[in-house]
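Thread: quick sanity check before group meeting

JM: Hey all, I'm pulling together slides for Thursday and realized we never actually wrote out the predicted structure for the chain we discussed last week. Dropping the sequence here so it's in one place. If anyone has concerns about the input, flag it before I start.
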Amino acid sequence: MKTSDFHQSKYLKRKDLDGPKVVSISEVTSETFKNSSDAKPLVYFKGMRKPLILNRTNTDAIEDIAGTDEMNDWPGVKVEIFPSTVEVNGETKDCIRVRAPDQAELPTRRPIKPAKPRAKGDDMDDEVPF
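JM (edit): ok, ran it. Output follows.
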């Protein structure tokens, strides 16, 4: 028996993900929580029951991926959600982050391009008289 059997969250948490997952946004809504008077956006993904509460970092990421700040235009946009951690007040906390699906395939370093061969007669070693 696990504690999560009795205290399940209705929102997507890091422990709900076993690794990166490419998902398609199905709906964006908002909800006001007990500890805040401000509404927060919730994003729902096709095939997933729980929504993700959007913080500023993830909202900005989806806005960049979707190319618009109009959340009503986000359904159908594909994103990759992945488990991560964040430093909060000197403490490491679990979180979920959002990125473009193709970013996972990008190299961490730019590949070094080979130098182009010089054309004949383009030798820069000419003597310069002083």
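AS: nice. Strands lie at 21-32, 39-45, 52-53, 78-88, 91-99. The first strand starts at residue 21 and ends at 32.
JM: adding both to the slides.
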